[in-house]
Design a protein that fits this description.
alpha/beta, Rossmann fold, UDP-galactose 4-epimerase, domain 1, three-stranded parallel β-sheet, about 15% strand, globular, binds nicotinamide-adenine-dinucleotide
Length: about 325
């Protein structure tokens, strides 16, 4: 049985993905780790405090638990990255390089590392952005993800490291708060609506972005990692898509449940980042190579969030 280490397990994605991995592979086989301490159900399983920049400690944790797979999720996201560019570059690159180097030395079976739609930029075709096209990111986050993709492919080709990756769109989940990205507004709106507060949107109407509900993102991640290596033909990172919407679309969807939600649009620096990203993504390679299919559209996602979130914020 493989033993899995999740790095960055306390974040928006990690806190849900780790629990799902534990359900599938057993609690004892999935070790959560993060620079911060865990909350809620995450704390029930095995947890290690770990800074992914500390290569020696990373090696010790891997040895101690006989780890054979790593899901490396720790990163500084797009909006926070623009405020701390030097640090974002260091964490996003050094963290990945430590993991890839260790995977090579210790012959780990598999590594998962997420990329992002932030690898695209103003020169990229905006509609149904293809897998291979102009990539000219203009955020430090996007630059670090694009460089990371190249390193993943390099380690696969030169050293045989079985590293797999997805270019996530904006992820929408209700269980953990987002970590400072450009699509966080689409999470915040649900909290504001349920708390009866006015929703201030930091993006302008008409800002279409690719998005995905968290259960779909988790399914895609596990499907990719479970696929036969021969089917994983893209070794930089796969385009991945589900929904594409603008703020007014999610407002309309939320108002089907909470009709009196008040909204004002107050775009800030994140508008420039959003404007440089695609409106929608062509993920046909993921669909044909390893059978990716999403389950949630906007209204189905909204209904599911309103079914579960009220109990969490009472
Ligand atoms: P997040 O900010 O919510 O979580 C990141 C986690 O990493 C946090 O728990 C943080 O404490 C931890 N961390 C930070 N520095 C660390 C370090 N030095 N060592 C160990 N842990 C550290 O991010 P997320 O939204 O969960 O994103 C996870 C991954 O998915 C990231 O690589 C991100 O770039 C990618 N991604 C996310 C989205 C999204 O919309 N959330 C979209 C595209 C890609």
């Amino acid at each position: 049985m493989d033993k899995i280490l999740v790095i960055g397990a306390c974040g928006q994605l990690g806190s849900e993905l780790t629990l799902e991995l534990r359900k599938i592979y057993g609690e004892a086989n999935v070790i959560a780790s993060d620079i911060n301490l865990p909350k809620n159900e995450l704390a029930d399983g095995v947890f290690e405090t770990l800074d992914v920049m500390d290569a020696r400690r990373l090696g010790e944790v891997v040895d101690h638990h006989n780890i054979t797979q790593i899901y490396h999720l720790a990163a500084i996201l797009s909006a926070v990255g623009e405020k701390k560019p030097d640090f974002a570059w260091r964490l996003n690159m050094e963290g990945l390089m430590n993991v890839l180097q260790l995977a090579k030395e210790k012959k780990l079976h598999k590594v998962y590392w997420p990329s992002s739609i932030a690898v695209f930029g103003p020169g990229t075709p905006k509609q149904l952005t293809p897998q291979d096209c102009v990539m000219d990111p203009n955020t430090v986050y996007g630059i670090s993800k694009l460089a990371g993709e190249r390193w993943c492919q390099y380690y696969f080709e030169k050293f045989g490291v079985d590293v797999r990756s997805l270019r996530y769109p904006g992820l929408i989940g209700y269980k953990a708060l987002p970590g400072g990205g450009t699509t966080d507004y689409a999470v915040d709106i649900f909290y504001k609506a349920l708390e009866g507060e006015r929703f201030e949107c930091f993006l302008e109407k008409g800002s279409y972005l690719p998005m995905m509900y968290m259960p779909d993102a988790i399914k895609a991640t596990i499907d990719l990692m479970e696929s036969d290596a021969a089917k994983v033909k893209v070794r930089s990172s796969y385009n991945l898509a589900a929904i594409s919407f603008a703020p007014e679309d999610v407002v309309e969807s939320v108002r089907q449940h909470i009709p009196d939600l008040e909204v004002i649009y107050k775009p800030d620096f994140r508008q420039t980042i959003a404007d440089s990203w695609p409106d929608s993504i062509d993920d046909s390679r993921a669909r044909s190579d390893w059978g990716w299919q999403h389950a949630f559209d906007l209204d189905k996602m909204t209904a599911d969030i309103f079914k579960h979130l009220p109990a969490l914020i009472e």
